[in-house]
């Protein structure tokens, strides 16, 4: 934003300087009888922005399924159906490293105002953790808006012997290697933190917990349903269809209060004596040094999206909570979240 304002200020200053220079030249020019009377200087109106002029894409930095994929597809669907955007929008899946592989390619490649991406805490975690650290973070992008918040959840398959979080943690405390926990992101990333946070709060050494990572929540859920892992740590909203189908049991949610919809009967971690919360915000980002026209377009468009009734219905259907922040507020929030994530990783011995 500072760079955009500086560029705008510089433009105004140069325009003023040019006008003064031209006036000075005119006043010093020799006058002749035949010289036409000077005409008042006319300032052309700023041309209206034509952005967007071609199709757009929104990247989910994961495989199909899971929170990022669902968020990207829902944004594209509502913007298209409500005609809030008059160009086609496609959704691309770019899995790898819990979003780190895509962000490295995006941040180091050619700036593209027509390619946006969704993200959540991993954009901070991947940059702050010690193992498999990414040199790129949210400061290598333009945060456009936070749209929703979700919460971490712990789930097991429907035929699991576990029916509550406490019994699972008791077994895990007795033997941390007894159970295999899965997540849709790399070790030290969001799903890993969601999965091991209750264990850590329960007095279990997080380094001894057996964690297996997959490229996206969809793959992790497939592993759970296939009996390849015992437990999954992920975002609560991505579990809705599996709960309704009777394929899984959600043992706990990492929210302050119980959630609604299909998870209304699932107790919080705090209710079960585990003092743990994990807020999974989700937002949309553009390239660093995004053009002023493109940024303003998305500022306006995403604000309207948040106020749209079609979007509100999608929030309810997906068990998401609205938590809109515009670009400026989102950027400030990310700075605050960076401090909190660093503190959490430090407590787990995972900070860089």
Automatic annotation (TrEMBL):
Residues 1-26 form the signal peptide. Residues 30-51 are annotated as: Disordered. Keywords: Signal. InterPro entries: BUG, Bug_dom1. It comes from the Bacteria. Residues 32-49 have a biased composition (Low complexity). The keyword Signal applies. Belongs to the UPF0065 (bug) family. This is Tripartite tricarboxylate transporter substrate binding protein. It comes from Paenibacillus foliorum.
